[in-house]
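REQUEST
  id: r-88c1
  op: predict_structure
  target: Putative glutamine transport system permease protein GlnP
  payload:
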Amino acid sequence: MEFNFQFDWQAAIDSLPFLLKGLPYTLLISFAGLAIGFVVGIVFGLMRISPTRWLRFPAVVYIEVFRGTPVLVQVLFIFYGLPTLLGGPINALTAGIAAIAFNAGAYISEIVRGGVQSIERGQREAGLSLGLSPPQTFRYVIWPQALRRMIPALGNQGIVSIKDTSLFSVIGVGELVRQGQVYIANTFTALEVYFMIALLYLAITLSLSLALSLLERKGLVG
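RESPONSE
  id: r-88c1
  status: 200
  body:
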């Protein structure tokens, strides 16, 4: 079999302005969802290591449910399933942010748990010996050290969540992939358009990886 297909660089470049219209949605869903997920992750991560059983149990259930189900199923449930329970529609953008927030929050919970538990027991004892209360010891001694150790894993989770936004075209969110699908329907240049989409995602994730590398070089990650 012979293939005479040639990559049309001009078609790829021409698609870029249209694709860039979806970039703000991709970034908004990613960073808004991650910001909410970080807060959710801290809460459930600390509940996960609580000595109180009634705090640990709901944290374990939440973490296992959202880590054990695909993010695509989660966003479909939020967008199509929850309106049935709530009696009203949910905006596609809101559904996307919620899916990233709850999905990332489950993984961040485990990152928080691991980070806090990685701090040596002697650090807590040292804080208490200085006259700090247990909450003060956690806030001023344990948490700053744990956060530094969590940064690489949090960065990796950020990259995963950014890529997960590509799934949300199924609910009509106008992010990069959705913009690409609309453009392809009119131009039939699938190879060139998806190539440009891949480059845009690569630029975003590489930028985040570079920022993490700079933090490591400055000694802000431990």
